[in-house]
Every structure is written in structure tokens, then in C-alpha cells.
């Protein structure tokens, strides 16, 4: 079994980011939102006995509900995983669930099959985010605290590179569909299958290397009850760690903004600014390329000046992003160029804040064997934040018929996070 700090173990762990990040880019951000918007735009959708005049709102609420489910189940399952030593088993289950659900989006063909798109969007989201809980929980077991900023950044860099590669392949197939003798819609649906195969295929590299039952636990019966007890113990420990508790509050506030913007950026560009699919795809690719540099840059800034200072810088830039987005409108001259510039700013801090929050939280943990349970609180914090963020975004859009006010509201959460973060005390590994 590979030991903590082993380069092969670190690289194999980081490769799960390479595997699953194609879901974040192709399904959550680029191809699927545009595919969904293209089919439903201007139509009233019937779902669960209700008429949806704003189909984008239905999509937003679907994601919100999936995050709520993850927030409920992940602490329980994580505690059971820690008690039994079966983190890898849960990682495999949710990876499989997510990849199969993504491939099932192939059967979403038009207005009469919108329900397929909504249902499997729901299950794909649960599979992705639940697997990430157990994946993140391995970080303290593959790298020492001094290396965790760099290792976390490596994962995100792998993820951005891998997702760019597959997205480019998908775009070539979609944009030049006639050369392949297929329709644009069919090319998009094939890309969903490719994402699922990529995800579950490359994940095998991670599964092969990660240790199972690192602490050699020998569980007794009654796993569920013992899992709840494990969860309660970790919660009581968190309450006694003021910096960790404060960081979770700051993380909650910033996640409202970060994850909501990631999920709905393409729809904002399409619906609010009237940008073409090409404009949006170029922006998304630009964000991914810049994010590689951003993750690397801020991991170095963190090493030199500390995690908290690096995170504060990213939050200031996120506030600027929200304010600039609020000022954009479809009648603005050269709105495409402004949107590209906004994409550069967003990319600079996207990978940075995701990488830094993960490594900062890991470095704040006490010496423990309950890594999955601790990271479940991290995940629940993020998911509840996304539920609130996507709901607020969708609600304000439905109320004002403008997404700009939604974006401005998200900026206020970044301000609040900055205030909380500025009042946290340094620890042994985090300053």
C-alpha cells in the first residue's frame, strides 16, 4: 500500500479531478446548459403537474433540490464510511451513479423528453457532489499539511486540463457536425455519453491507488446508528475549534456566490446578454485556461503569505466580478469583449478559491481518523450555500425578470465572507 506523501499516490488522487471535472465543465457549465436552453427557450414546460414559464428557473430549482439531498445524506454516509473504513466504496458508488446518469442525458431529445433532462440532471448532480465528499476526505491521507496547498492545486490543474481536452473534442464534433454526418443536437447528446465514459474510465486510476480502510478499522454491527454517533462526536469537536468553525461560516458565504456563478454563468450570458453559443464557449474555454494559472499562482501566494491572505485577495476579485457583471447589459457596445474580460477575472480566481478552501480546511483539521465525516461538514456547508444561492438567483430572476440583480446580490455574500475571514486567528498550519 502506498504511504502518505508518495508521489504516485498524490498523482493518482489528483487524477480523480481529471476524471470528474468534465462533468463540471461540459455538463454543469458549457454544453448541457446551452443544449437545455436551446430546446426550452421561449417555451412553457410542463413538469410535475406545473407549468414553468421560465424553464431556466426549473433547471435552477432542480440543481437546488439535488444539493439539498446531498446535504442531508452526505454526513450520514460519511460517518458510516469513517466508522467502517469504506470511503473508497462510497466514492465508487457515487462515481458510478453520476457517470451513468450523465450518459442517460443522451435520451433528452426535445420538449417531450424534458423530464429526462431534469431527472438525470438531478441524479448526476447527486453522484458528482457526493463522490467529491469522499474524494476530498482523502487529501489529509495522501499529503502532509505543508504540501496540501500544492497538492490540492495539482488536482484542480489536472481537472482543468482534462476538461478542456474533452470539451474541445466535443466542440469540434458539435460545430463541425455536418462533416461527421450528424445533426448538432445529436452531437451534443453524444458528448454527454463521452463525459460519462471519461469520468468512470479515468476514475479507475484513482480507485486502484487509493488505500481502503487506512486506519484498519474493524467495525461492529449497527453501522447506521454508529455512523450517527460518529457524526455527533465530530460536530461537538468542531464547536470547540473556533477558527475551523469560523472558516466554515466564511466558506458558506463565499460558496453561495462561487458555485451559483459557476452553475448559471452560461445561462446568464445567453439569456441576459443575448450572446451566441460561440461567444459563451470561447469565454468558458478562456476561464478554464486562466484558471490553471490562477490555481498555480495562488497556491504559491498562499505558501508565501498564508492561506487567509491569499483567500482575501480572491474574494476582492470576486466582488469586482459581480459588480462588473451587474453593469453589463445586451445593448452595451462590444458586450462580447467585456464578457471575455470578465471571464479572465473569473478564471483567475475560480481555480484559486476552490483549491485554497479545500486545502485550508484540510490544514485546519485536528489530528483525527474521521476525515470523511469532517469533510462532510465542509460539503454540507457548500451544498446548503448552493441551495440558497441558486434559489435566490432563480427567485430574483422570476421576480425582476433580470439576472443582473441576482448577480449583484451574490456579490454581497462575498463581502460578508471577507469580513468573517478577516477576523479569524492563525493556527499552526494556517495563517
Explain how this protein is built:
- With 431 residues, this protein is mostly helical.
- The chain has one domain (7-212, 221-421): Growth Hormone, Chain: A, CATH 1.20.1250.
- The protein contains 15 helices and two strands.
- The protein has helices at residues 7-29, 31-40, 55-84, 87-104, 114-136, 139-142, 148-175, 184-209, 223-239, 242-272, 277-305, 307-327, 335-364, 371-400, 404-421, and strands at 45-47, 50-52.
- It has a two-stranded antiparallel sheet.
- A hairpin with a 2-residue loop joins β1 and β2.
- α1 (7-29) runs parallel beside α2.
- The model has no long low-confidence stretch (mean pLDDT 85).
Q: Element order, helices and strands?
A: HHEEHHHHHHHHHHHHH
Please tell me what the overall shape is. Answer: globular
List the uncertain runs: none
Helix content range: over 70%
Question: Could you tell me the number of beta strands?
Answer: 2
Distance between the termini: 33 Å
Percentage beta strand: under 5%
Structural class: mainly alpha
Keywords:
Growth Hormone, Chain: A; 78% helix; mainly alpha; globular; 431 residues
Summarize the structure.
With 431 residues, the chain is mainly α. It has 15 helices and 2 strands. The longest helix has 31 residues, at 242-272.
Helices, strands, pairings?
Elements: H1 7-29, H2 31-40, E1 45-47, E2 50-52, H3 55-84, H4 87-104, H5 114-136, H6 139-142, H7 148-175, H8 184-209, H9 223-239, H10 242-272, H11 277-305, H12 307-327, H13 335-364, H14 371-400, H15 404-421
Helix pairs in contact: 1-2, 1-7, 1-8, 3-5, 3-9, 3-14, 4-5, 4-8, 5-14, 7-8, 7-11, 7-13, 10-13, 10-14, 10-15, 11-12, 11-13, 12-13, 12-15, 14-15
